[in-house]
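Journal club side-thread
Mid-discussion, someone asked how the predicted structure for our own chain would compare to the paper's figures. Pasting it here so we can look after the session.
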Amino acid sequence: MTGEFIELITAKGDIPDEVFTVIFDIIDPVEKTRYLEALKNKAREVKRLGEVNKLIKAWQTKLSQEQRQEHSNKTEFTDAPIVLNCGRYVAKDMGIKYWSFSSSEPKEVEVCPHPILPVERYINIDTELEKVKLSFFKDFQWKSVVCECNTIYNKNYICALADRGVMVTSENSKALVKYLADVVSLNMREIPLYKSISRLGWTGEKDFAPYSELKYDGDECYRHIYRHVCTKGDYGVWGKHMYEVRKHKEVRMMMAASFASPLIEKVGALPFVLHLWGITGGGKTVALMTAVSIWGDPENGCLTRTMNMTQNSMARTAAFLYSIPFAADELQQIKSRWDSYDSLIMYLTEGIDRGRARAGGGIEEIKTWKNCFLFTGEEPITKNESGGGVKNRVIEVEISDKIIEDGNLTAAIVRENYGFAGKTFVKYIAGYGSEKLRNDYKTIFKDILQKTDTTEKQAMSMALMLLADKLACECVFKKDTPLCVGDVKEYLTSVSSVDVGVRAYDWAVNWIAANQSKFCKDNEIFDQGDVWGKICYEHVMINKNIISAELNKVGFDYTAVTKQWAKRGFIVKTNQGKYVHHAKILGIKAYYIKLMIDKGSFVEIDDIDDIPF
């Protein structure tokens, strides 16, 4: 009979289950092996040996599992999320125990004084690491916690669950680890297995968390943020009011940046900062709330953060948000921590965290993010001495008047109605097509460069915002006309204002003009104290040590600046091509920079009466 089933195997078609059930029902191991070899020979003839070997292994696993479960106890927890096989363990409402026969007298061993069991398994789509969701009953309610396998299968680490409420100590940790491992092993098919994610944002070409079927398996400290990316209230009420507040261009710019965040990864652009700054009471905070309400709850502490956090915390939060904008209010809260925000801006807009070593050895997963940053404050985020890289990565929008007429009403509306537009927008761009998105982005980018005197990186950020506003007008605000280059031209930084060499030169001219008493002049007797150099007709000789120290004070790098000055002809090089001249002033030789400048830039003592103010 068994041989007849084997002959049923052909080059095509399904292999009947009966072939395996009949063979594995054979008790005699010799006879069973003989038929298995006959099955493999037949499979080899029809060129299906690989497939048959996989099926044999799967049937062996299945039957082994069934055999282990046949004499297994069941968990008997009241109102438990799931009933599982638990082998030798007695798992009831009063706790989990088993009988040990390792000594001369059997003894009862307590594993855990309250119900606990694994209810779900997760495979993270980013890291491919497995996690387990545990449910436990304590304080008259079922609670849950998602754990790394390294935690629940290691007696040295599982005690960390005590902080989450599990009654585990150094005494029962070994028994609890064995219990959980046995229950998972006994219930591979019974415990649901899900794909999971530990962040928000794009998880593929069209899937976007939390709008996909993925389960969340990330840190508990970010779970509340994950939950706040949701919908609440009435989409129509939100949309009707947004049409009114969007009439102010500053609010619309903030919303455009918010919509632009999920486009960054799609078009291959870089993270950027939009900073709304200006008068107190102008509506900056409420404008930020409207931009955040696109995605979820805009309340402070939900999707809107305060800036009172460390740089590392900002990076970790940005990595968690991934495609959703990082929104933070009141930038001046952290002003005392930095002389300038330049290093913070560069760090956040790089889109990658620095590597860190694990306590137990190895390197932590390096976090990345592909979103934009929405900040508000009372002053600009960049300074005159900020590097060109910083200037390029920030779009600053200044407000001098109120931009939201009734801030209390707007805040109340977005607190009760939110989250619909983001879901609609993501669905729309998922069906838009990545190639079409990239082509539209390139078209807008080229248009900005043709019509403005700005840098490529500034144009990249603004192109994202204009594309986002265009798409939002197509799927959310269908009555609005998309913003054009002319509407946003005033917010773009010019090439010259980004150029470090030019900005440092302008600073140097003003610095010399403000300190003329420190410089001697041609054909004049100098007896006024410190000497920093000499003012000549077409140039100024400046002591190298003085100019280097003064540049560094205001944030310019002396070496980088002098190279830029030499390239633009702002300084005169020696015959040997060096930037520094060995010259004599007032009878003493020293090293000087020879900065080219018009004499008319300085005010002579005799000309004071001619100053027009």
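Post-session note: The longest strand covers residues 116-124.
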